[in-house]
């Protein structure tokens, strides 16, 4: 009961012991529970089916004495309750009655008062185990907290994502691990999209479309939205965007980012099938990057754990987003790959990936070329002079 940080860690260990784990928490994201293999259920379903009940909820007006005579009447006979939350979530007199009747077989708790009253029926009950409320003050706990803080600081300085930042999107460690490759994809798509804008300024509206087999309510996209914001803003300003200031900085600069979640029929093993970034009401320096709706539009997905560009405007491509990228719109004819490859090779620019997408055979095509180095202006000029190439753009990743 209560599926926050402590509750989810208890669930993880219970799963390791071979237990079937269910949880009740009206505020817990479903993707966190799914990542651990825990089913989120209603309060009544949780108390009526559990053999062991572990309490981790805060003490609020809605949880005060939530375990009372009515509640104990619904639990399984012989249930065992572990209360590591607050004593006030249980009606102590009702608990004593449940213990006396055998409805509750065993109760573990920390003492709500230290030292406990000598005449406390609950503390003195033979089916109750009481421990001091000193878990955070032990030598081992203090040492563990110090190590965790040091590791978090080092990670933040190295640019790693922090799952425990209090003023950033709170993403559980297991969800953070699952989203990690999509975080890289999100930022790179933002960087690509803004580089397609003529002049690189005047961007007021961006739309992000997430395609996933998961229910939209089960997909927390705050982290991905922050990284797309980072990718759009940083290349055209002196701002440094992080998870804390992303939304605020976007608002300051007049950038409105909307999100859409589309459910598609793909494997639920992966949280996201693809991410699409659309920039509206801007001119493009690469006409082929404009969709039929008039927006700059690019789309990508994670393949083999790496971010890939899969669509530019209405053209399908497939190129790994590593190093840098050259996009060419050309007449679809033989020899184009060789011509551009020779120009790059003469300048010692290494091609890492290449993909061609076309609308109709022998008509128009887009060639996407990944390169390890940044070609000089002379090399780019030679590419643009190839007769069949109608337009091209160099993009830094």
TrEMBL record:
Localization per record: Plastid, Chloroplast
Alphabetized InterPro entries for the sequence: ACT-like_dom_sf (IPR045865), ACT_dom (IPR002912), ASB_dom_sf (IPR029009), D-isomer_DH_CS (IPR029753), D-isomer_DH_NAD-bd (IPR006140), NAD(P)-bd_dom_sf (IPR036291), PGDH_ASB_dom (IPR045626)
SUPFAM superfamilies: ACT-like (SSF55021), NAD(P)-binding Rossmann-fold domains (SSF51735), Serine metabolism enzymes domain (SSF143548)
Descriptive protein name: phosphoglycerate dehydrogenase
Catalytic EC class: oxidoreductase
Main location: plastid
Gene Ontology cellular-component terms listed: chloroplast stroma
Residues annotated as domain ACT: 325-397
UniProt keyword annotations, A-Z: Chloroplast, Oxidoreductase, Plastid, Transit peptide
EC number: 1.1.1.95
Metabolic or biological pathway, per its Swiss-Prot or TrEMBL entry: Amino-acid biosynthesis; L-serine biosynthesis; L-serine from 3-phospho-D-glycerate: step 1/3
Single GO molecular function: NAD binding
Coiled coil: none
Catalytic activity: (2R)-3-phosphoglycerate + NAD(+) = 3-phosphooxypyruvate + NADH + H(+)
């Amino acid at each position: 009961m209560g599926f926050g940080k402590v509750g989810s860690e208890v669930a993880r260990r219970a799963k390791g012991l071979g237990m079937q784990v269910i949880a009740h928490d009206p505020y817990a994201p479903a993707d966190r529970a799914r990542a651990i293999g825990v089913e989120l259920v209603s309060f009544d379903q949780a108390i009526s089916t559990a053999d062991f009940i572990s309490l981790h909820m805060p003490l609020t007006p809605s949880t005060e004495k939530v375990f009372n005579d009515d509640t104990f009447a619904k639990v399984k006979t012989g249930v065992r309750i572990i209360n590591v939350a607050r004593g006030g979530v249980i009606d102590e007199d009702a608990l004593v009655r449940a213990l006396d009747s055998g409805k509750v077989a065993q109760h573990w708790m920390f003492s709500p008062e230290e030292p406990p009253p000598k005449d406390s029926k609950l503390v003195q009950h033979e089916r109750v185990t009481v421990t001091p409320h000193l878990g955070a003050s032990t030598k081992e706990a203090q040492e563990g907290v110090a190590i965790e803080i040091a590791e978090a600081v080092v990670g933040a300085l190295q640019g790693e994502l922090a799952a425990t930042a209090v003023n950033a999107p709170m993403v559980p460690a297991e969800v953070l691990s699952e989203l990690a490759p999509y975080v890289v994809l999100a930022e790179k798509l933002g960087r690509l999209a803004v580089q397609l804008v003529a002049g690189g300024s005047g961007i007021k509206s961006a739309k992000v479309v997430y395609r996933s087999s998961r229910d939209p309510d089960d997909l927390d996209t705050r982290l991905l939205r922050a990284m797309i914001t980072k990718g759009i803003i940083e290349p055209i300003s002196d701002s440094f965007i992080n998870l804390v200031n992303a939304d605020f900085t976007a608002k300051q600069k007049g950038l409105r980012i909307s999100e859409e979640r589309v459910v598609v029929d793909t494997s639920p093993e992966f949280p996201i099938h693809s991410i699409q970034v659309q920039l509206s009401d801007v001119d493009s320096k690469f006409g082929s990057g404009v969709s039929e709706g008039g927006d700059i539009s690019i789309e990508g997905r994670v393949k083999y754990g790496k971010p890939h560009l899969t669509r530019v405007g209405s053209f399908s491509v497939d190129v790994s987003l590593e190093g840098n990228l050259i996009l060419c719109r050309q007449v679809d004819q033989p020899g184009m790959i060789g011509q551009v490859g020779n120009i790059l090779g003469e300048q010692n620019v290494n091609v890492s990936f290449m993909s061609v997408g076309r609308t109709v055979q022998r008509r128009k095509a887009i060639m996407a070329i990944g390169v390890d180095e940044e070609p000089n202006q002379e090399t780019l000029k030679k590419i643009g002079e190839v007769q069949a190439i109608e337009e091209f753009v160099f993009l830094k990743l």
